[in-house]
Amino acid sequence: MSIDATAIVWYAAICGSLSALAPSFGGRALRLAIGAGVGIVAATLLPLLKSLIGS
């Protein structure tokens, strides 16, 4: 199983950008970091989940 670095960067950018607009997490930098972290986790787990369901 290989990890697609492009997908990780993509998810981090998208989630980070979206979270920067969410006012309930505190400062913009914190929201950006949280969103990027969520995107990295999502992109990292996606290949594992796809292999578990056989896709």
General description of the model:
The chain crosses the membrane at residues 30-49. Keywords: Membrane, Transmembrane, Transmembrane helix. The structure is a single chain. This protein has helices spanning 5-20, 28-53. It is mainly α and 55 residues long. The chain has one domain (5-54). The chain is elongated.
Q: Which helices and strands occur, and which strands form pairs?
A:
Elements lengths: L4 H16 L7 H26 L2
Helix pairs in contact: 1-2
Keywords: Membrane, Transmembrane, Transmembrane helix
Question: Could you name the ranges where pLDDT drops below 50 across 5 or more consecutive residues?
Answer: none
Summed up, the domain count is 1
Helix percentage range: over 70%
User: Total strand count, please?
Assistant: 0
Q: What's the mean pLDDT score?
A: 79
Biggest sheet record: none
Q: What are its keywords?
A:
55 residues, mainly alpha, 2 helices, 76% helix
Please provide a brief summary of the model:
The protein is mainly α and about 55 residues long. The protein has one domain. It has helices spanning about 5-20, 30-55.
